[in-house]
Structure formats: C-alpha cells, structure tokens
Task: structure prediction
Amino acid sequence: MTQLFQSNRSTLADCMPELVATARGDLKATLALVNVKLVNVVSGEILPGMSIAIKGSRIAYVGKDISHAIDENTIVIDGKGKYAAPGLLDGHCHIESTQLTVTEFAKAVLPLGTTGGFFDAHEISNVMGLKGLRFMLEEARTTPLAAYMQVASCVPSTHPGLETTGAFIGPEEVAEALSWGPDMIGLGEVMNFPGVVYGDDRMIREIQATLRAGKYADGHFTWKSDDWRLPVYAASGVSGDHECVTKEDVIERIRLGMYAKMRQGSAWHDVAETIKAHTESGIDTRRMMLVTDDRSSESLLREGHMNFVVRHAIAQGVKPVTAFQMATINTAERFGVARDIGSITPGSCADIILLDGNIADVDVVLTIASGQVVAENGVMTTTWEGYSIPKEAFETVHLGRQLVELDFQIEAPIAEGTIVAKAIEVVENHVDTRERKVHVKVDNHHVNLDPSDDLCKMAVFERHGLNGGHAVGILKGVGLNIPSAIAMTVAHDSHNLIVIGNDDELMVKAGNLAAEMQGGVVMVIGDEVTSFPLPVGGLMSPEPFETVALQSEAISHALIRAGCSLNNAFMTLSLLALVVIPEIRMSDKGLVRISAEGIDIVPLFDPVV
Result:
C-alpha cells in the first residue's frame, strides 16, 4: 500500500531535545531497525548485531540493544542480518541529463538506494536563468531526497562571443541564489577555468560571492594534471573537480587539497582508470568521491544509479566499505553537511538502505529517507503531493522560422576540387573529442561529403529567440550509414538546437519537428520518425520515469538502425556543442577549439594555398 510521504527534514537544533529523550528511553522511537550488519563508514567497519532507533526524521540511538527506546507504537523492521548502510549520495549530478523532472528522478533513484545528492542545474539555468533553477529547487523540496542545489557558475559556459545561451548568470545572481536557503549548497562546476586562472572579473567575483556566503565551489579543469595552472585554479577556492580521467588527475587534485570526483555516467566511463590512484598508487581515499555527472533515464532503468557506480568501484578492487565511503561520508564532508547526512550515527538524518546478500552486489531491498520507508524491493511505497511546473518552462524553443535545406549547406572557399577541413571526431565513452583533418570534395562551392569516410554534418541553431544564428560543421565517427538525421534541443550547455545527419532533407525534417514539439529529440530514417518529446525547457519530460526511459531507449535503437553503434550515443552527441571540453566543438557561433592556450573560434577550412 502506497503511503503519503510527510516532508519533515528538521534541523538537528530543532529536534535535538526529542532525540536525546528518545536515546535515553524517556520518549520512544517512531521507527526501529533491528538485527542488521551496520556499514559504519565513519570507522570503516562492518558491525554485526546492531540496531538503529529513529525518532521522526533523525537517528536517536545506534547500538546492540535499543529495547529501551521501543514500545508498542514503534514500527520495528527486522533486518534479519542484512547490511544497513547510509543512503547513497551523488556528489555531482545534472538531473536534467536524465530527461526527468526532479519528482520522477526521485522516484527512479530512491528504490536504487540514492537518498540525496548535490545537483548542478546548469542545464535549465542556461535556458531559463534563475527562474529555472528556482523551480527545480522548489520541486526538489517536495521530494524525500536530501537534495542540495548549486547555482550555475557558467551561463554561458565561457562568454557570449563563443555561444548563445537563453540567460545570463553573474556574481549578483550567484549571491541571490545562495541566499535562498541552506539547501543552496554552493557554486556549480566552474567550466571557464581559463577565466579563473587568468583573472576574468566575472568568474573571480562569482567565486568570491560563494566564499563570502560560506559555501562551496565546484570545478571543471580539463588541462592536463601536470599543468602549472592547476594550483592556480585551486588557489581560487575551487575545491572539488569531476574532470578526472586518469589516476594522475586524481592524485594531483588531492595533493592540492581538492576533492577528486570519479565519474561513471552513461557515456563517460572514468572510474576504472581514476580509481587506480587508490588501488595502484595507494592514495588515501578521504577526498575521493564517486559521482554520475550525466546518467540517462534508460541507464537508470537498465543499470542503476549510485548503486551501480559503487558496485563498479568494488569490482575494480576497492574494499566494499571504502567504496561506500566514497558515495556517502566523503561526499557529505566535501560539502560540509556530514552532521546531517552520509552516515548512520546518532543525530544524523535517517537516510538508510538495507542490502541483501553479498555487500559487493549492492542489492538494495529497502530505502528509508528522512525516517520513513519510501521504497521496498525496487518499488516506491510512498507518494507525495505533486509539484506544478511553471507554464513558461514549456515555452522555450523560439527558432522564429522554419529550417530549409540551404541552412545545411557548407560553403567552401574553392569552386571545385578537394579541400582540407577540420572535423570533430567523437570518442566513445568519453566526454572529449578529437580534432581531425579530413579531405572533402567540393562541387559548385559546396562541400559534398562522402559517406564512406564516416563523415556527416552537424548544425547548431540558436533556439532562444535572441539572434537566429547558426553554424554548420563536419563530424567523424558517428557511423551513420543510411540516409538519416537526428535533431535535439539537449545540447550542453547552451542547449541550442543540434541537427546531425548525412541527408540535408532529413536534417530539415528532424530539426523542424523538434522545434514544433517545443523541444526534445527526433530521429528520422527515411520515412520513419522516432520522437522523444522534452517540453520542459527542451530538456525534460513530465512523463513517468518508465515512459521516459522507454522513449529514450527508442532513440538509442533508432540510432543503431542508422548505423551509429556508439555506447549511449544520444548522450555523447548531446555534448558536441559543449565548448569547454577539448579538443574541438561546434556552437551556434562556429567551430570552437579548446587547447592549452585557451578557447577560440577557428575556421572550418585550412588556408587555401
């Protein structure tokens, strides 16, 4: 029977008298877990025969015997020797990347053992500014999750000369958002790392506003780990970074006092390499965190969330208790909230999961959030009053015109012959790309791509109704081998309209259909159309989690039918306009190169000699 969740995450100061009275037995627990093997992430031990007394939303007592805190009104759950661990925390996550609303995200991950996280809503912020962040924060507050939000640091990710976003966030907006409450935990990933290193006024003042508010700044540094500028970046107060892809990346960040976030998203598989900082180099794990960053709804359905990441880390040779620390107490300590979440200790919020079988399997069979059973055996057992998303969030795609085939022509500086052009090469399971020089044929001043070279076109259209600009470039490695096209308004981070394909007519059709349904993904193969509507900001669907996951999966299957065999191809393609990740990207302004010297727009063609 589904029960109504009572939102009651009281502060420790407010409920402390009741907790103390319950701990000594004068008051009685509302919920008790008995006969469990306690995964103590504070001491790094597993303690058998333990019990936990909960009063309201927090833990009152942990010990061998809690009989003094129980009476006939206490709900008692016999753990029957199962493992009891703290609820899992995602230390860096963009909810919008799941294509789910916050409500549906919570329903998806709570049965998987995720009870909280630190969410950087910079996707919706790039579309709607602080209004988008505000509605996601308000929706998160209605759910059982211990949800902490970060204000986007980079809207735009660099500056308006490189891309067009739907909004702008600067130091004043950062200060305002951080005043909304203690669950506004800090500044989201500072992707304009060159701006920080070289003293860009906007970036410096945004970090200052964060530090003055007593909150935390997250990083995004993609220069090499031995670059002399990493310590410069760390000197700014940016104290955590998820752009770690090697063990050296992890080691150098930790040596500088930063938290290293090891990422296992749907399309970025970095844990196997980064975890070697511990398993091979023996680096202390106190400042290592496991995160997802971007995880699709279909990945949540088929693989899991943080339970999957913890299981994967254990499979790489990490001790189970250590892996749990990386997804609980380490994460809570990084953000200064370990008094509230991240451990099963007296006074902490009662966010607890029960695990069946071998601890390494991370088989979550019961989830308690804020002192209430919210999921059991993979199914939600509680519900809550729904949140009404503002109407303006459904009206964000403003192309201002119909796309035509002329929009997808690439004009060359020669009339006929062959010319050298820069192509963006996709790298499977990684966020980075490669810059490749390719020889392309030119007919009547226009590029004519040869499908046998595994080349296709990519166009980016400004969709916020600001300037109507667009640019067209060349992709390599997508694998399309029959006439096809995909259009999407999920295009990190400015979320303009991306259209990728090898047939101009189909690209027109896909792009116009995506705009007509106010955002989402459209895959066109000949006469076949597969649609995935995402009307909330052009990023998220209001539909139930399972529906969204199946729609996302349908796009994946369509891509495969068109010849694209990349793992989680949709998510990989959605990052091709993210102009802060090496080596080369495409925005509505043109081709953008990210190098050790900085970030610049570069010409598509090499000079003609």
About this structure: The chain has a mean pLDDT of 96. The radius of gyration is 25 Å. The chain has two domains: 88-341, 394-601.
